[in-house]
Each structure stands twice: as structure tokens, then as C-alpha cells.
Amino acid sequence: PPSPVESPPPSPVESPPPPTSQSPPPPTTASGASQYILPGSATYTGDGTAYSAAIASDGGIAFACSYRYLNSYFTQYFAAMNSAQWNSGAACGQCVVARCVDPACVTQNFDVLVQIVDECPECAEGALDFSYPAYQAVTGVPPNRLTVSWEYADCSSFISGGIQYNPKEGSNGFWQAFYLDNYSYTLASVSWGGVTLTRSQFQFFQRSGPMPTGPFQLTITSTTGQTITATVNDFNTPQDLGVNFS
């Protein structure tokens, strides 16, 4: 019989180089994680479940935040937010400090810092769906449904390097879209040429207009009120923008 014809391997997907500096190690004590809780944050309570193994640095593409890059800590310690508090994706990149308050937990009241990278549509308000490593750290048991409590947290010190820019496939001479990752505070808005861009439910920013032929600037504003300007050298080339919120 004729030999099977082998298909050529797919072309590698280009992505920006990861930041070079290392993220801080994960908190090893409850007091170590509690320092990241935002002052004045309310405490929320709900079901704690688990749904995913740890992922590669580009594994967030499969989740609702569509992240093309996560640092080493957040590839392990992440969670999906319930739809009510997901807020159409505004929660992407937000961190929370969670602990188990259920009598069935082996680990009780041990604070663990995680980043929101996904949505849990079936979760009730207050609930979090964790990665397996995060769930083990929070509860001390295999995946289950146990009560957790949590607060919003500031994890900006865990983010190193610049905001990462990635063009969206399908962009053309009339419509362009792109993703932003690795921002140290959650995004309030992104503007291009003085026009605020529309944020898709799939977490890319989009506009209608001609494709830029050279460098262009983005104005990026965080939910903390900081505004930075970043230059994209070429629309179709992934890039570390070299700036981030302080």
C-alpha cells in the first residue's frame, strides 16, 4: 500500500516575549496573602468548586478573558468568576483572596491569592470556580463543592513587564481588533485616535476604520484612574508595549 502522506506541521503562533523578571513566589501563609486584600472590600461568600488543571503561559486563550499571556504564578492560581460579578468581562485580571469556611474543609481559613481569568456562567453570585492547584490550597481536599469566602485584592506586585498586545485574527482593512494582557490593574477603557474602543464579550477591543500603515498610539485607562499611552509599532505584530500601570 502507498505510504501515508504526512501533513506539514502548523506554523507557530507568534506572541510577544514574556516579561523577563520573575513574579514573587506564592504566599505561603494566611497572613502573607491577606496583605493583598483591598482596603474596604466587602466579603463575599459562595460555593467553591474546581474545573481546570494548571495551564501553560498561553493557556488562558481557552478561557473567557482570552489571555495570551499569564505569568508563572497565575498559570496555577486562577479562578472563574460567577456571571453576576463577572460584569461582562470587567473582572478580567482582577485578583481575589479566598479561603474555605466550610466545616468539611481540611484547610480552614487559609488565604490564597488568585486571579480571575474566566467566567463561570452556572455559578451563583458569590461563587468561584478554581484551578485545581488553587482549590487544593484553599480547601485541602480534591475538587468538591464547599463554601468559601473572599475579598477583592491588589495583585499588581505580581505583574512584571509591560502590557502585552496581540492582534486578533480576522482584522482587515476595514475592521481591526486586538487583545491586551498582563496589565497590573483592571482595564476601564482603551482609546485609539481619541475614540474609545468597544470591548467585546470575548475581551478584545475593536474599531471600524482603515488599517494603520505605521505606528499608532493607544490610551489605556485602569479602573484605579491611571492613564498611560502606549505605541504599537505595527498592528499585525504582537508586542510588549513596554508600559504598565504603577
Provide a descriptive summary of the structure in words:
The protein has 246 residues and is mostly beta strands. The chain folds into two domains: 30-158, Beta Barrel (Barwin-like endoglucanases); 164-240, Immunoglobulin-like, CATH 2.60.40. Helix content is 7%, strand content 33%. It is built from three helices and 15 strands. It has helices spanning 30-34, 83-86, 132-139; strands at 44-52, 78-82, 95-100, 112-120, 128-131, 146-153, 164-167, 175-181, 187-192, 195-196, 198-199, 205-208, 216-222, 227-232, 239-240. The strands form three sheets. It has a six-stranded mixed β-barrel. Strands 11-12-8-7-15 form a five-stranded antiparallel beta sheet, with no helix packed on it. Strands 10-9-13-14 form a four-stranded antiparallel beta sheet, with no helix packed on it. The longest helix has 8 residues, at 132-139. It is elongated, with a radius of gyration of 19 Å. The termini are far apart. The model is unreliable at 2-25 (pLDDT under 50).
Low-pLDDT ranges: 2-25
**CATH C-level name of the largest domain:** Mainly Beta
CATH-defined superfamily of the largest domain? RlpA-like domain
Instruction: Give the N-to-C terminal Cα separation.
Output: 65 Å
Q: Could you please say which CATH topology of the largest domain applies here?
A: Barwin-like endoglucanases
Oligomeric assembly: single chain
The fraction of residues assigned to DSSP E strands is 25-35%
Gross morphology:
elongated
Organism: Auxenochlorella protothecoides (Green microalga)
Keywords: Signal
Protein name: Expansin-like EG45 domain-containing protein
Domain Expansin-like EG45: 46-155
